[in-house]
Amino acid sequence: MRFPLLIAAAIAVTASACAPLRSHQGYVVDADLLNSVQPGVDNRQSVLATLGQPSFASQFNQGDWYYISRDSRNYAFNTPKPKEQVTVQISFDQNGNVSAIRKSGVEQVASVSPAKRTTPTLGRDRGFFADLFGNIGTVGAAGAGAGPGGR
Fold first, then answer.
1. In the chain, N or C: fewer CB atoms in 10 Å?
2. pLDDT at res. 133
């Protein structure tokens, strides 16, 4: 009688460990506020009052503002994977008025792997034994310079 109950408890504990961890990063998108910003009508001050500070601002051109919201999922200790992302780019003209609003989603997310296991190098590919025994016979070889004594 206790054995099936213990098995059911073990299965429940094991299954609960496989639940995905969910996280939200960035701006909390409010569709009504976002739709209230109109090109040609609003300016930097009204966008700031309506949407708040942007996630980041462009350093070039007219200083476009970006509002980014991302929902990620991962299991246990694995790297989080983006499931949903909303990126809103608000462009301004010379006078600071909104000229365009662009929205994009998770299709714009790029996977970048900055660290690899090997570093590519120029030249020939040498293995472990070539590195270990590669200098045998090259010390004191002809044309390599015999050192003091002139031999």
1. N
2. 81
